[in-house]
Every structure is written in structure tokens, then in C-alpha cells.
Amino acid sequence: MIEIANDRIYDRIEDLKAELSELIDYPEERFIEIIKDVGFECDLCGKCCTREFNDHAFLLDADVDRIKMIDPDALVPAPYYEYCDQHGRFYVSGYALRFKADGSCYFLENGRCRIYDERPAICRIYPYMLHREEGEDGKVDWRQISGLNEHGFYNADIEDEVCRKMAVETKEYEAAFLNQEIRFSELIQEHFEKNGLKHVKGVYDRRIRQFKGGAEIEVFVFHNGALEKNTVTKTDH
Predict the structure, then answer these.
(1) What is the reported pLDDT for 86?
(2) CA-to-CA distance for 199 and 188, rounded, in angstroms?
(3) Are 181 and 93 spatial neighbours (Cβ–Cβ below 8 Å)?
(4) Looking at per-residue confidence, does 170 or 2 come out higher?
(5) Pick from 31, 60, 68: which is nearest to 174 by CA?
(6) The whole model's pTM is what?
(7) Rounded distance between C-alpha atoms, residue 168 and residue 145, angstroms
(8) Mean pLDDT across the stretch 145-167?
(9) Ordered DSSP codes for the chain
(10) Residue 142, φ and ψ in degrees, nearest 5
């Protein structure tokens, strides 16, 4: 069973590496054209900073280091835990920003970000994205824009240099995200093999049901090459 679990992790690593390779090869000029054609312009509505529009903001390691210095209470293990061992302990590839009870970001006050100049990378590039996922038509393809037509202004005339800068920053974020996922999966593979652990879907499902019922769970979060233990309840998300 351990060997089967490790094969699953190995397959995930290979899939992530393949996506990273495709990302690197994705034509920058094509992305620039998409950004220019969409012409997104922020209208300061603050909707993207709420759970209603984005269920979490995933943080890169560098973002986490900065947030820990500003206010560590803003951090929570990212949802959608990737693995759960036979002892009911969850593992996830990074942290996310905490939401307040009203569903707004921990740092959103009066419709404005308290740490705007220090905001995480994912907030800087939003609503742009560059990764492969399944669309509503079931086709897996590159997705470049998030929340299209749900907020903001469109068809604005954006300067070529601004489009190029956004395309570069977005591609850098997506590459850093995939590299973090790869390093996390490689560490989990090593950790599971070393400690006789395996991912068990039945245990995962049972513990999630308990979690939704109010039980505490242990979540080990990948950060800077190590696993940090967190105790989580559903109120944290």
C-alpha cells in the first residue's frame, strides 16, 4: 500500500514538471495580446478580496515570510489539503490569507488593503493567471483571466510596457507556484517513505467530515523546505 501511495505522488510530481515545462514554453507575446485585448482595469470594488469571489489566496514562501513579519495571525493553511496519512494528519503545499467572519480578507478595511505596498504576489497579478485547467466545456486548456466580467472595467487602453510587465510577473508567479508544488510533493514522498506513511482516501474523507462537524485537525504546511504543524478548525477557513 505504501508503494501504491508513493506511485501516486510520483505521478503528481511528473505532471507538475510537465506543466512547468509547458508554462516556460508558453509564448509571452500571446499572453501580452490577451492582456491588451481584455483591457482589464480595477474599479476598486474590493470584490476580489472576498470569499465570494476567491475562496483563498495562495501564498508563495516569500509572501509567507513577509506576512509573518507583518501579522502572523493572517496566515492559515491553504484549503484543499493534498494528502492525509493513515493517522489522520493532513499535508498541504502552502499557506493562504485568513478571511474575517464577514468573508473579507484579513487585511481588507473599508474596502482598501491595509498592506497594499506589501501585498502578496497573487494579489499583485490578479486577475491574470496562466495555468492549465478544465473549463466549463470539459476541455483542458490554458486559462489566462480570473473572474472575467464579474468585476472591474474592460476594454481599457493599456500601454504595451504595462502589458509586458504584467505578463512577465504572472508567468513568474505561476512558475514559482509550480516549483513550490513540486518541492512539496518531493518532500512528502521522502517523508512518507521514511516514516512508513501512506495517503489513505478513506481516512481523508472521514477526517474531513469530522472537521466540517467542528473537530480539530492537524495540518502540516510546507514552508521553506519543511513541514510546519498547525491545528485547524473550520472557523479558520
Answers:
(1) 95
(2) 10
(3) yes
(4) 170
(5) 60
(6) 0.91
(7) 15
(8) 90
(9) -HHHHHHHHHHHHHHHHHHHHHHHHS-HHHHHHHHHHH--B-----GGGBTTT-S--B--HHHHHHHHHH-GGGEEE-SS-SEEBTTS-EEES-EEEPBPTTSBBTTEETTEETTGGG--HHHHHTTEEEEEEE-TTS-EEEEEESSTTTSSB-S----HHHHHHHHHHHHHHHHHHHHHHHHHHHHHHHHHHHHT--B-HHHHHHHHHHHHTT--EEEEEEETTEEEEEEE-GGG-
(10) -70, 135
Question: Mean pLDDT throughout 125-139?
Answer: 84
Boundaries of domain holding 27? 2-236
Q: From its phi and psi, is residue 214 left (phi > 0), alpha (psi between -120 and 50) or beta? A: left
Contact 81, 96 (CB under 8 A): no
Using an 8 Å Cβ cutoff, are 150 and 42 in contact? no
pLDDT, one tens digit per residue, over 160-184 is 999 999 999 999 999 999 999 999 9
Q: How many domains does the chain have?
A: 1
Structural contact between residues 82 and 58, judged by C-beta atoms closer than 8 angstroms: no
Asked if residues 81 and 219 have their Cβ atoms less than 8 Å apart, the reply is yes
State how far the Cα of 143 lies from the Cα of 33, in Å rounded to an integer. Answer: 14
Phi, psi of 39, deg, nearest 5: 60, 40
Distance from the first to the final alpha carbon of the chain: 32
